[in-house]
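Please describe the entry underneath.
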Amino acid sequence: MQSYTIGQAARLLGVSPDTARRWADAGRVATHRDDSGRRLIDGRDLAAFSIEVGQGGSGGDEPSYTSARNAFPGIVTGVKLGDVAAQVEIQAGPHRLVSLLTREAVEELGLEVGMRATARVKSTSVHIDRV
């Protein structure tokens, strides 16, 4: 299973490394140390925690003032395989994205819960809100 550093987890959750570190210090997400002493978060633990953060708000200190881009880097939080189709959920910071694609595509990409992935969105109608 893939593990993530505090900095990587912060980028995936859409918060500062200090915020991710405080969450780890408070025990909100479990960490372990690698051979060089760096704190790591197991991919499955980060996936579960990212859902919690997404449902309750990021808790970040800085509001967003930019239009969302078309690429949403995040962590895979769910994969449901059917006979032909599949559903993949990605938590990208506070954003939960769900994509329907072929089972073959999911298998070729090797997608599983806890992996990093980027959801790319193309739309003919884009709404922009300033928060």
Summary: Strands lie at 3-5, 32-33, 39-42, 71-81, 85-92, 95-102, 116-120. The longest strand covers residues 71-81.
